[in-house]
Amino acid sequence: MADSNHIIIESGDAVQPFTYSIGMHGSKFFTEIRDNRRFMGIRCPKCKKVYIPPRGVCGDCFVEMNDWVEVGPGGVIGTFTILRFAFIDPETGHQKPVPYGYGFIRLDGADTLFQHYISVEDEKKIRIGARVEPVFSMNPKGSIRDIEFFRVID
Amino acid sequence: MGKRVAIVGTGQTFHKSHRPDVNGQELINEAVVRALQDADLKMKDIDAVVIGNMDHFEGINYVDCWSVDGSGGTMKPIIKLTTGGTTGCTVAIGGYHLVASGMFDKVLIIGWEKNSESDTTGAITTAFDPIWDRLVFAGAISGLAAEAQAYMARYGATDRDGARVSVRDRRHAMNNPHAQLRKEVALEEVLASPMLADPIHLLDVCPRTDGACAVIMASGELAEKIAPKPDWIWATAARHSYTYLGDADYGRLTSMREGAQEIWKKTGIKEPRKELDVIELYQPYSFGGLIWIEDMGIVGPGEAPQYIWDGNTDMGGELPINPSGGVISCNPIGATGLIRCAEAAMQVMGKAEGRQVPDVNFAFSTGFGGCWWTDMILHGRKKPK
Amino acid sequence: MDRAAIVGVGTVKIEKRKVRETFADMAWQAVNGALEDAGMTIDDIDNVVTTSSDFWDGRTISCMAVGDASGAAHKNVSCVEGDGTYGAFYGMARCLSGSYKTTLVTGHSKGSESVSSLITNCAFDPIYERMLGMDMITACAMQANAYLHRTKTTREQTAMVSVKNHGNALKNPHAQLPMDITVKDVLDSEMIADPLRKLDCSPVSDGCAAVVIAHESVAKKFRKKPVWIRGVSLCADSFFFGDRDLSRARSLTEAAKKAFAMAGIKDPRTEIDVAEIHDAFTYQELMWLEEMGLADESSAGRHLEKGEYNIDGRLPVNPSGGLLSGHPVIAAGLYSMAAVVRQIRGEAGGFQVKKARTGLVHGVNGLGGQSHCVWLLGDR
């Protein structure tokens, strides 16, 4: 990108590594996913909305939530897209192969949407409202990628 | 009670995809110098500085401190506000409160970004929760595509409706020498451009831009002395809902609806479609130009495509949107919201030159963030009571 | 100009590593603490300012993590990046602008989740400085040498700041490092960057604090007697160290002068009863005191030796234990503010100062105190 008159300085491999705390809600969620392949949401005692990912506070009602409820594992596509252009995956620094499906799943029993990949084996089947199920990783580690993707089962 | 506040000067860089001829401070300074010239003020007249950008696009921590050689903030109060894509509008709202509070008479507001200095999509992706959202997020465009899909499914809109918005903004950009992309495109060209993420084509979205914008606000009578036709700030609103991406109502922009309703109520505007004269909408992709003006209350749900096809939002139409060419023509992210504010101010002040809309009484500018946040400002020619 | 007051404060215990809590969990605790303190519900709050740093949190738009837990879901909201005192400054401006009556201000960070020196290295200019590997500690070590050299302040004197502040922390249940130590302990501790030894440096910490600021028209409606904001000012010096006299802080001198004038304080040395000052490193407490005009040039070390800055001294400085006893960056200034509010209310418990009617709060942004924010709070 540099032209002959202007020097560019590269930051090189400098990174700032982090050890993020998942917190108590995330820890329960990922333990259940890893060990039991169960999705755990949390219900607001006031508005009864079931949140996924689970968290401590219902933003709308500003009350603490403690009522765990199992949701999914099946659900429907809330909305989606199919990526056709390879972006740099910031976690790996490499371009992620295209095409791949991405979307928001309304897991059975949940009121908010769960973001994940959607298999594009048969693109024609991918539509809003299509039923999906998760495909779990064979080597679960307690992260969001313990779910590999969702696939359409209609 | 608070003081009345007006914009008395604006300045922008000539936005480009890559500015290797300047570093960040120098880029900022170009906009600052132009704003001071526009208001016929000197840096010594400025009482405080508000600055914003997105840290990870340039990788600089404590930008408020680092940037003083460009911002002129040395030995002045300087404060940094950052809210993602909304930042440019957020800093304008910040400047408004600092002047209205009575603590400062003249405040310089700066938004900037050198998007060429990092991988923008990678940096945007770090905006999202590292545990839940980031590992499976696919860049800002995928989130926008998901919104567009939901809107199309709900209201039967098509990709042609989206493309029409892109055609409009790219045509308007021809009138703006500061815009990065100044090339008219035909509807079919938009639809034939590469598909990035269904239903978004390359020509439906904004570019990456290096650029800066500066705005000077002043209080009450002082503003009237500095500028013959100051741009009065009538009202501001901001909604930053949601913790996680999946919390949003895809296909509707709740933050826009809540914030706009608050502004119409506060200012007594009953029919924004009739009472507004021009909108500078932070609209980084074409479909947002449909969805979000419905949430703003310009037209009803699902009505935007027809309204736009009828030419109402073109130059010369009932309510021109993005005379500047908008974000699709130019997106230095931390500056983008402030450019909308500056362009709206120029319309009210009668300084918009080739992109001037005649007789602007009320102008509306917004900021948008990929986390579905919206900030907004109502600008007016008359001093609010 | 109208006036504003602080009507509620909430803090969570500062800890080395909060594994159990996310940012949102910490915010929920601090915000509810502040609301409870003020006798408010979230419905009494009409706007929110969160304070955080994308670098410290390791994510762009770091404020996104705490909005819902700060009750911002359907309110006007904004986000300041920098020390909590700057967030509070904007929160106050929003109360005085005529737009709002009650601002909830939060500040959070977790130093434990990153490598601090990599984060502060990014505060250096990427073109001219960063590759030299500087961080906040090395920068401040240079400043410490410049200050010690110019003022002839001794290392024993700076060590006494550590002894005093860690000792004060023994009385503060929210402090991270209460310690009964001696000057010798400080001088024998590991050398980090000459002249700064381990016990000259504040620790890495996790924490979150919240304050509620109210416009004068409503300030008396809540549970506690309002603590009035009498004066506040901020100012930034040049960025490059080579452009500054590192042994000085002219931006602090300027900010303090303006804050004193706004508060109507003519003789700050006698009119201020308690001060919480940014003591990320021991020398800073003494240097900032001098540069603010609270001590003569080169004299703060001697005043300290005489016990004048002790809890029972002439001008108690950092009775809470200061940042040396717990330093959640960003939240830090709000902790200092909460400590002074509690002093003025007479609620500081074991570290209560006698007759605290006027207090000073000090926050810093940038490297080596480039930018300073000074507050004068009072009971009237």
Give a written overview of the molecule:
The complex is a heterotrimer of chains A (154), B (385) and C (380). With 154 residues, chain A is mainly beta. Chain A has one domain (23-152). Chain A is built from one helix and twelve strands, in the order αββββββββββββ. In chain A, a hairpin with a 6-residue loop joins β1 (39-43) and β2 (50-51). The longest helix of chain A has 14 residues, at 23-36. The radius of gyration of chain A is 19 Å and the shape is globular. Chain B has two domains: 5-119 and 209-226, Thiolase/Chalcone synthase (Peroxisomal Thiolase, Chain A, domain 1, 3-Layer(aba) Sandwich); 120-207 and 232-380, Thiolase/Chalcone synthase (Peroxisomal Thiolase, Chain A, domain 1, 3-Layer(aba) Sandwich). By secondary structure, chain B is α/β, with parallel strands linked by helices. Chain B is globular and about 55 Å long. Chain C has helices at residues 23-38, 54-57, 84-96, 116-121, 136-151, 155-169, 183-188, 250-263, 268-271, 282-291, 300-305, 332-345; strands at 4-11, 47-51, 76-81, 102-110, 191-193, 196-197, 206-215, 227-236, 274-276, 358-365, 371-378. Chain C contains twelve helices and eleven strands. In chain C, α3 crosses α12 (332-345). In chain C, the strands form two sheets. Chain C has a nine-stranded mixed sheet with strand order 3-2-4-7-1-8-11-10-9. A two-stranded antiparallel ribbon of chain C has the order 5-6. Chain C has a domain at 4-115 and 204-221: Peroxisomal Thiolase, Chain A, domain 1 (3-Layer(aba) Sandwich). Chain A binds chain C through residues 9, 11, 14-26, 55-60, 62, 64, and chain C through 18-22, 24-25, 28, 42, 55, 58, 67-69, 71-74, 110, 112-115, 118-119, 122, 126-127, 130.
Short key terms for the protein model shown above:
heterotrimer, A: 154 residues, mainly beta, five-stranded antiparallel sheet, three-stranded antiparallel sheet, 1 helix, 9% helix, globular, B: 385 residues, alpha/beta, Peroxisomal Thiolase, Chain A, domain 1, 2 domains, nine-stranded mixed sheet, two-stranded antiparallel ribbon, 15 helices, 37% helix, 18% strand
